[in-house]
């Protein structure tokens, strides 16, 4: 069985949709696309979809980019350049480059594939795995591909169980006991319940498996349909469901769990609150996502940096971190950290106190600053003595503060304080 899955994975091309901004992350995506946003101390969000593909044996990959893609493209070039053509491996970056005419950029997720059909065909894949590049999870795609081939489905849709109230923001499917999709509705006001569980619904993960030739035909027909929005969730999948050829693949069947993980883990970190929470959760004694497991590594570009350093040992001026993750190149100089996640090259100065802080690479916290429940964007220089997390009204005037009390701080916000 495992050999069969490996063979099918080798015949598959993964197409990663990575062009979205992720506007709910506000200023974090002013200069980078959502898939390029930092996550977990060393990685970027897109690394999870790419690592899942590689670990599943799918080593022909295309990444479609569009919105402010420079940071994403640079990351992929630096961290994902190990593919070898002589081993039938490849990773192509496909920016929106007006492949079909001189007017149209990618008009939807389906169009983002259709505009690159000639490039995809050149690899002659038998199956195409369409992935979203902006979620955090570990999954063995080869299990899903095997189900697709075994059942003879026209499309196999990855899905996960969510509370019905939360399902209103997803594409939701109604299925029978054999996993046939009976209905597919995009962001319904009243999501259909799962069979046998009226409190939950099956939400689409934005993961699809197609036979390649069938997908080509489908996309070419969709491209000339003036009524189509050229989107998988809105147009392509509902059409296949109506024809009776769509199958669901529950995430729990192929989710990768190590010894520490007790249940399937999948997160959309598309809001500041969700992003902060998912990062801080990694500091738990037993986190819901195990990024330490060597049997399913999360590949990434790893900057060359010295080990983290903690200095000073005086009362009130002790470099220390409790329940925290500190990356290479960080210097914790006479400051205290509790439940914090520091990316590469972060510096914190004497007498500073940080609690619940997610500090992106090369940010710096000045002396006697106090930060609680904060996301620091890359390169932010927090001035000495700044206090965030004690006065909600003042925080909201100066920074981006969410309803849950998380403050996003960018350098432009800091600059406005000093003018």
UniProtKB/TrEMBL annotation:
Its EC number is 2.7.7.27. The record marks 66, 105 as: Could play a key role in the communication between the regulatory and the substrate sites. It catalyses: alpha-D-glucose 1-phosphate + ATP + H(+) = ADP-alpha-D-glucose + diphosphate. GO terms for molecular function: glucose-1-phosphate adenylyltransferase activity. Alpha-D-glucose 1-phosphate binds at residues 106, 171, 186-187, 204. Residues 306-409 form the Glucose-1-phosphate adenylyltransferase/Bifunctional protein GlmU-like C-terminal hexapeptide domain. Keywords: ATP-binding, Carbohydrate metabolism, Glycogen biosynthesis, Glycogen metabolism, Nucleotide-binding, Nucleotidyltransferase, Transferase. SUPFAM superfamilies: Nucleotide-diphospho-sugar transferases (SSF53448), Trimeric LpxA-like enzymes (SSF51161). Pathway: Glycan biosynthesis; glycogen biosynthesis. Homotetramer. This is Glucose-1-phosphate adenylyltransferase. It comes from Roseibium porphyridii.
